[in-house]
Design goal:
By secondary structure, the protein is α+β, with helices and mostly antiparallel strands. Helix content is 26%, strand content 36%. The chain is built from 16 helices and 27 strands. The strands form 4 sheets. The chain has a 10-stranded antiparallel beta barrel with strand order 17-18-19-20-21-22-23-25-26-27. Helix 1 packs parallel to helix 11. The termini are far apart.
Length: 548
């Protein structure tokens, strides 16, 4: 089949169904039947998509009805919540098989996805494919684990988590599901667990990008907990969500503990309040991400995803969109009913990521522990740096670099006081510069001389909430910096700071802009530090060459 397809999207004007259509509406060969219980909502949604090249047809449809009158090639069930489908959970699946209609769903219910294989024989007999769980959990996680574990002797641990942007506009159905299972006893792949009461912290850091930040993740009930154990039976599987703002997340964890302790039967009645809080009490950076970490045989590797702005919320709908696009191009999928773990690859995702501000990368966490500081933090982005930058930061032991530079200083009283406290050099042009690097493992001491003036700092990898960042300490002041590779330049972006170990708000701190680059074949640096209260504090720049 190629050239044209008709897709019946159940929940087509909802959060995930609507985003799937958004990803595909530029295809002229597609007809989408935007279906749901409210015909008025379907009509309004279709009318709002003024730039769509695909044909959008509003329709009233309940998932318990027969889809055959619409004559679709594929039915996509994006309605949910699948946990609430009850004793007749597969009624739509069975109707599709009887009608010879292919079926895809975005189910996030472990029981629903695990039970889809019961319809395998009937689907094969009808010559149709029935693919379940076509979303980030478990399709994307499974694809990533396969890649990370390819050369591992065994897989002992799989951890993962999604960290949505605070402005991701999570749908009400998702909130109902979370409220329903929070604190309840579940099967977590061979062990009993209580969602949201198990927590961990993790920093999502795509190599060479500003990390998403150190997030609190709490266990969620997703198909991965059981499905990934079927593929990697020796692995302990843990999957979490890291919503922000964090105070709201901690509140949810606290309520889940009330359920776990038997003080509250369920959080289901709180779902409307939770939904209101998620929609109204949002602040922070409009960015999100995902991580998958695999350990086995003494090796730990991790995969990281960063999504800027409004692109992140599209990711759960991308695998379904990929399957429809591939089908439109004429690709055939094997008949049968199954979780779609082998039907979506990372290449499918990368094709969806590439035109958007979505970035991925990997860290070999075990190997990186023995590497020099910059290489350790940058991961596979290290290889994208120009050779002159790698030569400067790839040394060990004691070495010195020399060159020429200039210094400009602020003229205000507060700026002068800051320069005095930090021992920054006086202003000057064409000053002789030398930098002594005393490197011991991942810790470095830099002693900079501008003419007759000298100042130093200690640099080491961050831990805890500053994980995946580089810490530069000047006496009592410590600055946590992200190392960002951008078009051959290395940028230093301030993410956290503290005085005497006391963390302080970023808005209260200095504005530091630092970069390293190659010019005329030499290592160059440019560092500018200012503050809203002082204006310019110091700006020093120049070039260096290592001494033989």
């Amino acid at each position: 089949m190629s050239g044209a397809l008709t897709i019946l999207v159940v929940g087509g004007y909802g959060t995930f169904g609507g985003r799937m259509v958004e990803l595909l509406e530029h295809h002229e060969g597609l007809t989408f039947i935007i279906a749901g219980r409210s015909l008025d909502k379907a009509k309004a949604w279709c009318a709002a998509r003024t730039g769509a090249k695909a044909k959008l047809v509003p329709a009233q449809f309940d998932r318990g009805a027969d889809p055959s009158p619409f004559k679709p090639d594929i039915v996509v069930d994006a309605s949910g919540p699948f946990q609430d489908y009850g004793s007749d959970a597969y009624k739509l699946v069975e109707a599709c098989i009887r009608g010879g209609i292919n079926y895809i769903d975005l189910a996030d219910s472990s029981d629903f996805v695990m039970g889809i294989s019961a319809h395998d024989a009937a689907a094969k007999a009808a010559g149709v494919f029935v693919l379940s769980g076509v979303s980030s959990f478990p399709v994307l996680t499974a694809a990533v684990v396969r890649q990370l574990s390819a050369d591992m002797p065994k897989v002992e641990s799989i951890k993962g988590g999604i960290a949505p942007s605070p402005f991701a506009n999570v749908g009400m159905n998702v909130i109902r599901v979370i409220a329903g299972y929070a604190g309840q006893d579940i099967d977590a792949g061979g062990r009993r667990a209580r969602p949201l009461t198990e927590i961990m912290r993790y920093t999502i850091a795509v190599p060479g990008r500003v990390p998403v930040g150190n997030r609190l993740f709490s266990l969620v009930d997703v198909p991965d907990l059981r499905i990934l154990r079927k593929i990697w039976p020796d692995a302990h599987v843990w999957m979490g969500a890291g919503p922000v703002p964090e105070p709201l997340h901690w509140s949810l964890v606290g309520f889940a503990w009330l359920v776990r302790l038997g003080l509250v039967k369920s959080l289901a009645r709180l779902a409307p309040l939770m939904y209101w809080a998620v929609c109204r009490l949002s602040w922070g950076e409009h960015r999100g991400g995902m991580f998958v970490e695999v350990s086995g045989g003494g090796v730990t590797k991790s995969w990281h995803l960063l999504a800027e702005g409004a692109d992140g919320p599209l990711i759960p709908s991308m695998p379904a969109a990929s399957l429809v696009a591939r089908r439109l191009a004429g690709e055939k999928f094997a008949a049968g009913a199954r979780a779609a773990l082998d039907d979506i690859t990372l290449e499918d995702y990368h094709a969806q990521f590439s035109p958007r501000t979505i970035y991925t990368g990997t860290h070999n966490d075990t190997a990186e522990e023995a590497l020099p500081l910059h290489r350790r933090i940058l991961g596979d982005a290290w290889d994208r740096l120009p050779q002159a930058l790698r030569d400067m930061h790839g040394v060990e032991g004691l070495t010195t670099a020399e060159g020429t530079g200039s210094v400009a200083r602020g003229s205000g009283l507060l700026a002068k006081l800051a320069c005095l406290l930090m021992r920054f050099p006086p202003a000057g042009e064409n000053l002789p510069i030398s930098v002594r690097f005393d490197v011991k493992g991942a810790t470095e001491k830099w002693t900079r001389s501008f003419g007759d003036s000298r100042f130093s700092s200690r640099i080491y990898p961050g831990t805890g909430r500053s994980a995946r960042l580089m810490i530069e300490r000047f006496g009592p002041l410590a600055f946590a910096l992200a190392l960002v590779e951008e078009n051959g330049r290395l940028l230093l972006v301030l993410r956290r700071w503290s005085i005497l170990g006391l963390p302080l708000p970023l808005w209260l701190g200095p504005r530091a802009v630092g970069s390293e680059f190659v010019q005329d074949g030499r290592f160059n640096f440019d560092v500018k530090i200012s503050h809203p209260l002082t204006g310019l504090i110091v700006h020093y720049r120049g070039w260096l060459q290592r001494k033989a």
